Amino acid sequence: MNYDAKLDAALQRLHDEGRYRTFIDIEREKGNFPHAVWTRPDGTQTPVTVWCGNDYLGMGQHPAVLEAMHEALEATGAGSGGTRNISGTTVYHKRLEAELADLHRKEAALLFTSAYIANDATLSTLPKLFPGLIIYSDELNHASMIEGVRRNGGAKRIFKHNDVDHLRELMAADDPAAPKLIAFESIYSMDGDFGPVEAICDLADEFGALTYIDEVHAVGMYGPRGAGVCERDGLMGRIDIINGTLAKAYGVMGGYIAASVKMCDAIRSYAPGFIFTTSLPPAIAAGAAASVRHLKTDQARRDSQQTQAKILKTRLRALGMPVIDHGSHIVPVIVGNPVHCKALSDMLLEQFGIYVQPINFPTVPRGTERLRFTPSPVHGPDEMDRLVNALDSLWSQCELNRAELSA
User: Fold this and answer.
1) Does residue 56 sit in helix, strand or coil?
2) What is the pTM of this model?
3) Which residues are within 8 A (CB) of 279 and not within 5 positions of it... i.e. 6 or more apart?
4) How far is CA 297 from CA 151, 251, 276, in A?
5) 51-101: pLDDT as tens digits
6) 271, exposed or middle or buried, with CB in 10 Å at 0-12, 13-18, 19+?
7) How far apart are CA 258 and CA 280, in angstroms?
8) Looking at the annotation, which residues are catalytic?
């Protein structure tokens, strides 16, 4: 077997389809977000503006977050020292879990190294706790949810995206006595559309199902304290398990679930993804706790971000750009071709100092390749002007479609 030839063929397929990804060396400037420095392949450096980061609110640069991280680093050192069960539980981890439980008005929270691991570990463990569990999963759920459902060995049903009628049909066809769980998201990050949370909760009540929601693109961003779409809509009490991240709006790293004490205790005790993983460094936990605590009261930052997103969508629509607008903070602009999408990304970076990565298959379906912009409260009018003008110029230069997509 020529293993190198197999690797060459696999990588060449990505090149042929225009989907091969290269890492861009970007170094953010402390205190100057969204500005960064791009180190070109030849070693020269160019200032750029980041337009595709998930640090939606710029909290990765916030003084309160940095101060908390410095204090914890000086007090404890770099690493946590092990898994939570052995030597990796500290006062910083406990404080963060308390902040998260309070945020979501739940009895408890359980911290993971990422929201991906939190989804995968939790969803793959639930059938161990509820034998015969049937999981109903939205077809556009994140890869981490899909992986967790796939690996759990239990029964699964995939319902059409946001299609409550289809979900009802599937649930009605199953044994009424079987334990059930509905897994879905509050905001689907590639189109920026919202899940029908209340309608799904109603179905869960009707069929006696648990509810599991991924709020990773909503925590910090929506609701009076930043707890997400469920808080905004007054539905947190109807959700059994909330998954969230600390790496997007909170600007740090890590993921978690918030649920009852018994649920968190059971996942903690049975999930290999929790049991065998070294815990987050204390400095990371301290910074995340400071960020969560701060955003519980910083509504102005959330409002400013939403305003920025609306302005960008309005300006791009006025130019006939194919923007998808579901009213969230995410601004996807459809290109529809992986090669063109990568070329646009490269030209924006090289010619205009604008950094936005192409989003291609398998993250989005083929034919819907896009540039996904995430404006923040600290993208100023000049940055906005430069982005809009650059896109207008390149769209004409590349003779791309300006027909607007309906939401």
Assistant:
1) coil
2) 0.94
3) 80, 82, 83, 84, 88, 89, 93, 111, 113, 285
4) 39, 16, 35
5) 999 999 999 999 999 999 999 999 999 999 999 999 999 999 999 999 999
6) buried
7) 17
8) 248
